[in-house]
Design a protein that fits this description.
Distance between the termini: 13 Å
Radius of gyration: 17 Å
Structural class: mainly alpha
Number of helices: 5
Strand content: under 5%
């Protein structure tokens, strides 16, 4: 049976893989001069991968909270773990907010190039935060061994 502490590291890879591909699809749509909110294949790919990335990030955050409790009980120091947890929650909620905003304009089929570029820049900012969070999480595992031998 899978240890509860190991579910979080498995789940975090979904938003880390899906969001860059979603943003790539969005950038492709914009570069082609098309609307980000149309129902073309590339636009729909960017939209649905963003939605899946947000769901994955929120799910990873829930299991990350549980992994934090397990690590605390195992005696790991809370300092770096709390910083990672705060960044993780912020990343998950910002990604969810980005996805909600994207869904709002996608549903309305807005046709604004400026808005599309703004959403892409917002998504890239969220990705930067997500990658920073992942880097700190990697430090917890590879440098401190948090929840590796649980």
């Amino acid at each position: 049976m899978i240890d509860l502490a190991h579910i979080h590291p498995m789940l975090v890879h979904f938003p880390l893989a899906l969001l860059p591909v979603a943003l790539g699809a969005q950038a492709l749509v914009i570069a082609r001069g098309n609307s980000l909110f149309e129902r073309s294949c590339a636009a729909q790919t960017g939209f649905w991968l963003t939605m899946l990335a947000a769901i994955g990030a929120l799910t990873a955050a829930v299991f990350g909270d549980q992994a934090l409790d397990i690590a605390r009980e195992a005696g790991f120091s809370m300092g770096k773990m709390e910083g990672h947890e705060e960044l993780g929650m912020l990343s998950a909620w910002l990604l969810a907010g980005f996805a909600a905003m994207y869904a709002f304009f996608y549903r309305k089929q807005t046709d604004s190039r400026v808005l599309a570029i703004g959403l892409l820049i917002t998504g890239l900012s969220v990705l930067a935060l997500l990658l920073t969070t992942a880097w700190f999480g990697g430090q917890l595992v590879y440098d401190l061994g948090v929840n590796v031998r649980v």
